[in-house]
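Exam revision sheet. Question 4 asks you to relate a sequence to its structure. Input first:
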Amino acid sequence: MKHGRDFTRELGLAFQVAEYAIKNKDKLSTKYVAHLGLKSVIANQILRKYGRNKKIKVISHIKLAIPSQGIKYNSGIVNIPSLKLSISFCKSFQKINQIEIDDEYAYVSATVEEKPQYTPQKSIGVDLNTTGHCAVVAVKETGKIFKLGKKAEHIHKKYKNMRKSLQKRGLYKVVKKIKNREQRIVKDLNHKVSRSIVNLAVKEKGGLKLEKLRDIRKTKSRKSFKYALNSWSFYQLAKFIEYKALLAGVPITYVEPAYTSKCCSKCGQIGKRNDKHFKCSCGHVEHADVNAAFNIALISPRIVQLQEEKGFLQAESDTRQKATQRSYATLEPRVFRHGSMSEDLKSKIKRFMQTG
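Answer key, structure tokens:
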């Protein structure tokens, strides 16, 4: 929130304290910077932040950090005595942990109490995608479908082409600014999409189900699909949904993603998927992402069976691979001194070579 004050002097002093902390990591006490004139409650936070972080080498932007003991709250007004600043903050929270202030805004970090989870009456599946809509939501009991975040793909393509053009002209600083802008736009979109999903769950009194996506970028894919996959902020969107759901008391669970896109949401058999088109031998035709969302909402026994078979085959493959590695380790050449090999060992090696 905007504070409407000029803290140029205090920010300048904070910059000097931060520079001192980086150069003198063994002297992180306010007595060493008291002569600069910055309030000790703020100087102490800056010394800790920049003195204890070994990765920070250069300071590009500084904020005034005020801990909870330097903050007073009464009737919707936050008072910071060290800066003689009062801010209106009418939000429901347990306590204020910290406030950071720059030349224009005050950033308030507060602990918010989570609502108790309700018993879900409906099952809501959320399918996250790299192309098309970034999230497709399906309510199993009512058959309602919601497609969200369609412009995410357009944003990525637009900024990809802009960066490509700028790189050809050698404008690398502008490329970095463009990339940061893209990240901010996508983050804002993810916030809006996650809020819509959680609000829907609250309205429907349903529990959210998401795919447990692991090592998604390690999967083999065609060259044209790699950029979409690597620029996909699925983890960020999933985390936004998760923390908003916890605050709203919405139950959220994760399911295994295997076969959710391949199986039919009507009969459970494996169908044919062609891009965004899904068709099953039972006659069911559906948008591929919608079909996956319904499968995520309620995993059919057939999908569970296929997942168990896949897990069994994977475990068997891992066992064979380990056994092969042990065999190779046994056959490694070893150097023995003359007369050091016992007759018993010689006979064992001979039998092994004969039997293979």
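Marking note for examiners. The chain has a mean pLDDT of 85.
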